[in-house]
Design goal:
Elements (H helix, E strand, L loop, with lengths): L7 E8 L2 E8 L2 E5 L1 E6 L9 H5 L7 E4 L1 H6 L3 H6 L3 H5 L4 E4 L3 H5 L5 E3 L4 E4 L6 E4 L1 H11 L3 E3 L11 H28 L13 H4 L4 E6 L5 H14 L3 E4 L8 H11 L9 E3 L5 H8 L5 E4 L1 H7 L2 E4 L2 E4 L19 H5 L2 H9 L3 H27 L3 H12 L5
Parallel strand pairs: 4-5, 4-14, 5-6, 6-10, 10-11, 11-12, 12-13, 13-14
Antiparallel strand pairs: 1-2, 2-3, 7-8, 8-9, 15-16
Helix pairs in contact: 6-7, 7-9, 9-10, 11-15, 12-15, 14-15, 15-16
The structure holds zinc ion.
The site of zinc ion has 8 residues, from helix 13 and helix 15.
Length: about 400
């Protein structure tokens, strides 16, 4: 087994709590803070991989959803096609989530036990069972560069007692995830239970990184305890999970304020499922390095653009003859070429190009914002950048 670490992370500049870093993976270097577009079912919806790689966007890492890919097309298919990178045609880095959050969000349709979570597939109604072990096997088969532990999420408004038992379960599942992950990295893939021929060990050894997840809902003492217990197990990176799930925004910032500075300084810190451009800046200011969110792609499909002057709804009649681009300070190819009037026309006509162009601009805006964040941290201007960025956002685009 290779003793080479699957990823390395170094902080190259700090400005207050904000950090600019380099995350090195076997599939290239990722500059942090980084925004990761979400590729739920093996596609970042509405955008080609060439565009994700283009200088306009230059996404270095995208997300894949274990839950969705496991149900359809299934691990067997992806394995037969050479793993997720080859299957989708993406050579850059991939992070897969564990499926924990997706099965949790099924609500009444799932049953959680010590062993794992039982639920009905939304694809074909079959009864499925996801556990730390199954999640690690599936993520190993997908061949992602960063694997997430299988966790249990508590609702944002969970009581102390509920959050405590969820935290305990998450801690036990984190340990089981770590053990199964290590075994898979050591021995190669034994997917007997999934009916798949094991991969060659050298294909996998030391190749994947594993991140732990801090839970504890809105309870600050539990968040700290969850962090301590997660660090005790030991991971390549650490994530804050279970935020943006119905709690007040002020609660989210209290948790991040508390937890982020206590997270190991030499490992990447990932705030899962967050958020708006404003959220990203605020979290960077608190020392977070990695983000993912469906907002730029989902809102792009429903006619909403993120701009440097706030959100813009392309449906509004006021744009019907407006020759300006979505965002006059955006340098993306959509803003260089097309007017609000044209984009509104496409949207009103139900043309699929509307969603494609808005998605492109939204991702360009998120990724360019992070580029500027990184530059400002390196040059010691982050507080000024933050203030001006937020100020401009609040001058509404509409
Ligand atoms: Zn643009």
């Amino acid at each position: 087994m290779s003793t080479k670490r699957p990823i390395t992370f170094s902080v190259v500049a700090r400005d207050g709590e904000a950090r600019a870093g380099l995350l090195k993976t076997r599939r290239g270097i990722i500059e942090t803070p980084v925004f990761m577009p979400v590729g739920t079912a093996g596609t970042v919806k509405g955008i080609r991989f060439e565009e994700l790689e283009s200088p306009d966007l230059d996404a270095r890492i995208i997300l894949g959803n274990t839950y969705h890919l496991w149900l359809r097309p299934g691990v067997e298919t992806i394995k037969a096609c050479g793993g997720l990178h080859r299957f989708i045609g993406w050579d850059r880095a991939l992070l897969t989530d564990s499926g924990g959050f997706q099965v949790w969000s099924l609500g009444a349709l799932r049953k959680i036990s010590e062993e794992g979570t039982e639920f009905r597939s939304h694809v074909d109604g079959s009864l499925r069972f996801l556990s730390p072990e199954v999640s690690m096997e599936v993520q190993a088969a997908l061949g992602s560069d960063i694997v997430m532990v299988f966790d249990e999420c508590a609702p944002g408004k969970a009581t102390h007692e509920e959050a405590r038992s969820s935290l305990e379960l998450t801690a036990r599942w984190a340990k089981r995830s770590r053990e199964k992950f290590d075994q898979l990295q050591r021995d190669g893939l034994d997917l007997g239970s999934l009916g798949i021929t094991p991969a060659l060990p050298e294909e996998l050894s030391g190749a994947q990184a594993l991140f732990g997840i801090v839970q504890g809902a809105a309870h600050r003492d539990l968040r700290q305890e969850s962090l301590e217990r997660t660090v005790e197990i030991g991971f390549d990176g650490y994530a804050i999970g279970g935020l943006s799930v119905g709690e007040e925004k002020s609660v989210m910032w209290e948790v991040v304020d508390d937890v982020a500075p206590l997270m190991p300084a030499d490992r990447p810190r990932y705030l899962m499922g967050v958020g708006t451009p404003e959220d990203l800046i605020e979290a960077v200011a608190r020392g977070v390095d990695m983000f993912d969110c469906v907002l730029p792609t989902r809102n792009g499909r429903t006619g909403q653009a993120f701009t440097s002057r706030g959100k813009l709804n392309i449906k509004n009649a006021q744009w019907s003859e407006d020759r300006r681009p979505l965002d006059e300070s955006c340098r993306c190819s959509v803003c260089q070429r097309h007017s609000r009037a044209y984009l509104r026309h496409l949207h009103q006509s139900g043309e699929m190009l509307a969603g494609i162009l808005l998605t492109h601009h939204n991702l360009a805006f998120f990724l360019d914002t992070m580029r500027r964040v990184r530059q400002s941290i390196r040059s010691g201007d982050f507080p000024k950048f933050r203030e001006e960025f937020i100020e401009r956002l609040n001058e509404s685009g509409e």
